[in-house]
Amino acid sequence: MTIILALLIGGAFGFALDRAGATSPNLIIGMLSLRVLHLMKTILLAIGTASVLMFAGQMAGLVEVGNMSVKAAYGGVFLGGILLGLGWVVSGFCPGTGLAAAATGRWDGLVFAGGGLVGAAAFMLTYPWFEGSFLMEEIAGGKATVGAVPGTDYPALVTGLPGDVIGIALGLVFIAVAFALPDRLSGSRARAVPAE
Fold it and tell me: Entry's InterPro entries (predicted)?
């Protein structure tokens, strides 16, 4: 049942990505070059809304803090983020949008997904080298959070404010920015390219 639920949720998410235009490299590159901001507004609104609901739910006791997973910060995460960003700019896809584009039949999405699998295999083969390198050394205590999370012992980068309050505040800022941004800057005309 878990795999069926995962497929249903993943399919719904992929459908939403396609409907928002996130499977079009033209719109994604337009967003990354700060010319067409429709997708950026959608992303900011989604992250902001989810943050407000999740952290408010934690404060109200509706969301169990124990279900939240804090990932360790280490040098390799930052290097991987830079590589992901460069790949996103070059291809016009991130992993999620690339898979959604592949599901629509776009040949560039299929090539992107294949390249992602080759890259994952290369990382798996070289992981023993990375595991012993400086790239795997934890930063700021490893599993640090921005604000203190009640009921956990994660070190907080900002003391004195609960993490839930910081999460809600950041979510509200994201929502405000999403509404304040225009759809386009300087008369840009990027458009979605249909699946081929």
Answer: Sulf_transp_TsuA/YedE (IPR007272)
